[in-house]
Amino acid sequence: MATSGSVSIFISSASLAVEYVGSLLPENPLQEPFKNAWNCMLNNYTKSQVTTWGSFILHEAVFLLFSLPGFLFQFIPYMKKYKIQKNKQESLENKWKCLKVISFNHFCIQLPLICGLSYFTEYFNIPYDWERMPRWYYFHLKGCFGCAVIEDTWHYFLHRLLHHKRIYKYIHKIHHEFEAPFGMEAEYAHPLDLLILETGFVLAFVLLCDHAVFLWVWLTFRLIGAIDVHSGYDIPFNPLNLIPFYAGSRHHDFHHMNFTGNYASTFTWWDRIFGTDSQFNAYTEKMKKLEKKTE
């Protein structure tokens, strides 16, 4: 009972904090155009069409848009200094292979998952109307961060399980075919691997969703994060690095290079708690010492 009460107090306090911060933030200048576009969409398409095909089209657009820079960086000599594993570059043939596997996963795994979420929103009467849509800051300060914590927790423990020597070669090994990751490789995986790990994404949405548009916001946030940590580049002034405890590309790049440790998807705390970042920390210290010697 005491624990339950403490959790309720924490959630209430967090909600009040979000509301307070929101009261200090300006109104979204694009609110009126967004409102007109949203209402026009609802007037011309069914809720099922909006949630299913709208989400799938958004997924494909965001995936291609944010994977493209990492693909183009290999042709820009200036960007090589930001590449983490500078001596490893996947061939265009391998990237084409990656794209074919990803296309299968998108249509045969992720599209059915999105259809399932569409049925969820309708069955539980999740609101679609503009009037009940939370203010824009809610998605950033409460919704996405809360979902990221849930997904990251699921990802850490299930990802670590998939690395167990008895099952690794049957499922998760496919994702590690590329030692130097690149953006689109974020979703290059065995179908069962993708299904297991993306259950965390679905679980977070189901637990925290209070409006249909949140699927689009959470989908975009999660996809950008996944592509970023697989980008293979450590770009200065990356706005995602402003997120507290954000793991980033170096953290996950080491996981692909080392195959063990750094199992979390977004944050660093689970790896710190269980010591699964020890090899990464030792490697980082070693590289810092080498850099000082060469200066």
UniProtKB/TrEMBL annotation:
InterPro entries: Fatty_acid_hydroxylase, Sterol_Desaturase_Related. Keywords: Membrane, Transmembrane, Transmembrane helix. The chain crosses the membrane at residues 56-78, 99-120, 201-221. It is found in: Membrane. Residues 146-276 form the Fatty acid hydroxylase domain. One of its GO terms (molecular function) is oxidoreductase activity. Its main location: membrane. One of its GO terms (cellular component) is membrane. This is Fatty acid hydroxylase domain-containing protein.
